[in-house]
Amino acid sequence: MDLHFLGDRKLFDQLPQAALLLSLQGQVLAANRQACRLLKAVESDLIGRHADDATGFSVLAESCPLEEVILQGKGFHRLEIEGQDDGLPLVVELTPLHGDDGQCMALLESFREAPVIHEMSTRLQRKQASLQAEMERSRSLIDSIADGIYTVDTSMRITAFSRSLERMTGYAEEEVLGACCRDVLQTNVCDTDCPLRWTLENEKPIQNCRVSLASRTGKSIPAFISSDLLRDAEGQISGCIGIVRDRSEIEKLKQRLGDSLSFSDFVGKSKSMIELFELADNVASTDATVLIQGESGTGKEIMARAIHYRSERRTHPFIRVNCAALTDSLLESELFGHDRGAFTGAIRDKPGRFELAESGTLFLDEIGDTSVALQAKLLRALQEREFERVGGVKTIKADVRVIAASNKDLRQEVASGRFREDLYYRLCVVPLHLPPLRERKEDIPLLVEAFIEKFNAREERIGEVSTRAMALMMGYDWPGNVRELENAIEHAYVTSTTGRVERRFLPTVLQGRVLGADNQVDETDEEGNELLQALERCRWQKSAAAQELGISRTTLWRRMKDLGLIEPKN
C-alpha cells in the first residue's frame, strides 16, 4: 500500500507517543520507534499482524470501533490500566487519517503512558487500605468496650450495633441494621423521653439517662443511656450515637446491701449528721417505731426510706401517707380502708394503707396534723397491731412497721392538748431529729457539689462556684433547708451563662442580701448604699471602687469602717 499520506517518516518516528499505522481492517502497516520500544519488537515483526495480536491492549480488542471511526470520522480513546508488564496504565487513541478526497485511508493508533493516573490510582488504593485498616481498628476498639454502643441515622434507624450490645440484648448486628431502634431496644422512654431523639432535636448531648430496655428474650435490663450527635465530613448532622451502660450488677448490689449502706441520699460530714447516720443505721435493723422530727425540707421522707431499705422489710412495700393533705374522714378511710356501703360513694371494698403496707413499712408524714379522735384509732393499730375498716366489723391483723414524721414539736403539741401523750410515747420509741441546714452550714459546700453533679447529668453546664456565691450561700439561713438549697442551685444551673454559679444567678431572695448581717446598710442611707453598690460592682476591689466614687482609698476605708462593712472572705 502506498503510504504517501504518512508524510515524512522521520516525523512519524519522532512522535513523543508510541504509534501504529493501521489498515482499515486493523492490520499494522507501520510502527514508529516509540511503539517498537514499548512493544519490545522490531517493526518488521509487527507489520501485517492485527493490532490486537501485535499489542495485546489495542482498542480493537473489544467491541471493535473500526466501523464507527471510519464511517463517522471520529476519534476513539480509552484508558488501559494493565497494558504493560510493569502495570503502568496507557491512554490508547484511535484516529482516522483522510486522503485528499476526504476518504478515510488508514488509522493511527497511539499509546501514551499515564504515570500521573497510575500514581493517583496507587495512592487511592493505599488510602482505601489505610481507611479499611483504621475502620477495623476502630471497630475492634468499640467492640472491646464493655458499654454497648449503637448509632442511628436521622430517622432513628440503626446503622451500627457493637458486640457488647449484642451480648447485652441477644440481637446480632446484621439482623438489626436498618431497623428502628425503638423496635429493637424497647426502652421505657422510647415514646416519652428518648435521649437520642432529644439529642437530634436539640443538638445537645444527654448523659446517664436512666432507662430499662428489653432483651431479645423479653428480660428487662436496667441501664444508663448517654447520647451525642454524629456529623458528616461537611459538618452536617448525620445521626446520633447511643452508649448503653448496664446497671444490673449495681442494682443487684444495692439490693444485697439493702439499697443503702451509708444513707447515700444524705450528704453531710458535720458531727450532728454523722451521729444521726449511726443511730439510723442501728435502728434500721430493728422493728422499732421511729419518730423523725425536723423542719420542712430537711429530708424526713428520705430518712424514712433509707431506714426501710436498710431493714429486713426492704423487699416489701414502703407506703407513704401525707396526713396533712386529707380531712379526718378521708384520712381514716385512707389508712384503714372501707367496706362497700360504708358511706355514700363506697361502691366497693377498698383496702387501706395499713393493708397495702403488710410486712413492709408505713410512713405517716406530718402526723402532728391529725385529730385527737383519729389519733386514738392509730394508737390501737400500733398497740394491738389490728384494726377494722370503716363500716366493717372484721378485725384485720397488721404486720407493719410504722415510721412517723412531723415538722412540729410534738412535745409542745402534747402540752397544748393537741396531740395524745400515749400516742406520742408509742411513736417516739426511737426519736430522730434532722437538724436544719443553718445548724450544719459546714455541709453546704458538699450539698452544692452534689446538686451540681445531679443537674449536670442532664447536660454539663456548671463547672464551678464563685467564692462570692458560696459566701452568700454560707451566710444565708435557709428557712427552706436542703430543699431550698437544691432549688437555688437548680435556678443557677438554668440561668447561668458563664458556666459558673455566681451570685447574680442565684434566686432574688439571696441576691438581695449582702453577704450576712455584718453588711446590712440602712435603706435611707443613700451615701452608704452608693458605696456598698460600688464595692459590689467592683467585686470588692477597693482601689477600683474608690476611683469610681471619686474618693481616695483611705476615705473609702474610713467610710467602710463607719458603716460596718466587711469584705467577704473567699
Short summary of the structure?
This protein is of the alpha/beta class and about 575 residues long.
Write the CATH fold name of the largest domain: Rossmann fold
Alpha carbon gyration radius:
43 Å
| Total of DSSP H or I helical runs spanning 4+ residues | 25
- Tell me the fraction of residues in β-strands, as a range: 15-25%
CATH architecture of the largest domain: 3-Layer(aba) Sandwich
**Residues in helix, %:** 25-40%
Cα shape:
elongated
CATH superfamily of the largest domain: P-loop containing nucleotide triphosphate hydrolases
- Quaternary form: single chain
Distance between the termini: 106 Å
Order of strands in the sheet with most strands = 2-1-5-4-3
> Mean pLDDT across all residues, rounded?
80
Report the top-level CATH class of the largest domain: Alpha Beta
Descriptive account of the structure:
The chain is α/β, with parallel strands linked by helices. The protein folds into five domains: 4-117, PAS domain (Beta-Lactamase); 141-251, 2-Layer Sandwich (Beta-Lactamase), CATH 3.30.450; 271-435, Rossmann fold (3-Layer(aba) Sandwich); 438-511, Helicase, Ruva Protein, domain 3 (Orthogonal Bundle), CATH 1.10.8.60; 520-563, Arc Repressor Mutant, subunit A (Orthogonal Bundle), CATH 1.10.10. The chain is 40% helix and 20% strand. The chain has 25 helices and 21 strands. The protein has a five-stranded antiparallel β-sheet. A hairpin with a 5-residue loop joins β1 and β2. The radius of gyration is 43 Å and the shape is elongated.
